[in-house]
Amino acid sequence: MSPRPPVAVGKGHSLNSGWGWCVVAASFVIHTIVGGIAYSGAVWLMILQRYFDCSQYETAWLGAILLAVATLGGECFDEPCTSSFLHIVFAVNFCYWNFHEQNK
Length: 104
Known about the structure:
Elements (H helix, E strand, L loop, with lengths): L18 H21 L1 H12 L3 H27 L2 H18 L2
Helix pairs in contact: 2-3
């Protein structure tokens, strides 16, 4: 099997039609907001403590749960996205929609 020749891309032409920068910008904004909220927990801790009139111990659970969900969420979604599980999901989805369209 011989390797394919490289695809020449002309100047000013991108393969993703320019949407790559939108994805990068959206990812940056979301990570900035979520990371900013998660890592400014001490400021939110005092505000929530005053608002709900409770102890530091009770209020600290909010920040701990936020970081735990973010960490465990990454671990839970890592395996399905990097294994053959994702290929199986795509194959089942493809077969389902083909069957659905044929029986319309």
